[in-house]
Amino acid sequence: MMYNEISEIRDYVKDTMEILLGGKINIVNEYLYRNEKLDRLVRNAVFNEKRDLKDISRWIIRQSGCALGIVPASIQGLYESMGKGEYSGFTVPAINIRGLTYDVARAIIRAAIKNNVGAFIFEIAKSEIGYTEQRPSEYTAVVHAAAIREGFKGPIFIQGDHFQINAKKYTKDPEKEFNTVRDLIKEALEADFYNIDIDTSTLVDLSKQDIVEQQRLNFELAAKLTSFIRENQPEGITVSIGGEIGEVGGKNSTEEELRVYMDNYLKAINDKKGISKISIQTGTTHGGVPLPDGSVAKVKLDFDTLERLSKVARDEYGLSGAVQHGASTLPGDAFDKFPQTGTAEVHLATEFQNMIYENEQFPKDLKDEIYDYLKSNCADERKEGQTEEQFIYKTRKKGFGPFKEKMWNLSSSIKDNINAKLEDKFVFLFKKLNVVNTKDIVDKTIKPLKITQKPPVSVI
């Protein structure tokens, strides 16, 4: 299954595409490529041990996707239109995929095609890039491969979620931690991440009496990272940037905090294009709060704050609205409230991870192996008084990286069962968030730019 030489890759795809000088690709047999060649190519893009063969596999997938009309894009145009009040009544889902990425992305794409959905985002957080072992270039290639495999056409939105400054590391060495996030942004831009959420809310200091001083590091560093993005984004593309005023899991955000952040942030960026949305805290936590038996506590989400701050963000600053994090484990009847309250975007992750682990066909021996690994390798994360069920629930996200290949190698019947249930879940969410039939809106507001990337090594 693994390629050994570049010439082998070239020979493998030659019946399906022409690779031209300069890096352009022409597809000559789409059906053969999609249905018979692609699966092996994407496996090599993820697992080939030779760096150059992995890179060229990723490049072919990304460029062939563009050739087939799958164009990585910024959602900026849509969000600007929402900020002007031209479109409303739906909330864009941003979906984090931690494991079985190719299969889960295909399920998302199928659900989108069935329901004519254009407004949806694939994303991965800075922390997830680490523990799921998915660098930006890999994530982009796998998402593109899923879109090719399912026959998707149009702009595709890939987002860096929570590109976050670590408060403890920043206190110890501010420059080093800032540069870590800056370097990740550059890597992500090179991998077609044209939507990036800056999260410097970790530096908000509520011990200070003055709100400006509480938010100072937050808006100052967000402005610096915004400037860096604008200086490094591809010509002709305006990256959609998100800001954040309240760390998820902390106290609920206020209008005053939003205004203080925005007024000072806009001064700091001068005449540069600023953020298109703003994340706030309304009572959720990432992944939910596990109870001693491993079930998840019910969350009382403050929809009044979400509605009020979304309105302020649109009416006073021209943003698309507020963003809700940590929402996937909410009860199903909560999701239609997001479009009703004018929420611009909602981030969803943990429930899909739970559906994978808790699927009745997920092999018990593999699950036991993963959980034993977590007990040995994440023991320092166990909090005093935490039950084993709580510990596993909070740490099992860290099983996706070390066991990525074993999950990838699950039988087709097991994966088909998991993916069918995930697809049903995505259809449910698309309907609840009212993004069904948003394909035409996206086509009107987004004009994706095809960028020809030169191959990392010669394949001609």
Automatic annotation (TrEMBL):
Gene Ontology molecular functions: aldehyde-lyase activity; zinc ion binding
Any one GO biological process: carbohydrate metabolic process
Pfam families xref list: F_bP_aldolase
InterPro entries registered for this protein in UniProt: Aldolase_TIM, Class_II_FBP_aldolase, FBA_II
Superkingdom, natural source: Bacteria
PANTHER family reported in the protein's UniProt record: D-TAGATOSE-1,6-BISPHOSPHATE ALDOLASE (PTHR30304), D-TAGATOSE-1,6-BISPHOSPHATE ALDOLASE SUBUNIT GATY-RELATED (PTHR30304:SF0)
Record's protein name: Aldolase
Lineage: Bacteria, Pseudomonadati, Planctomycetota, Candidatus Brocadiia, Candidatus Brocadiales
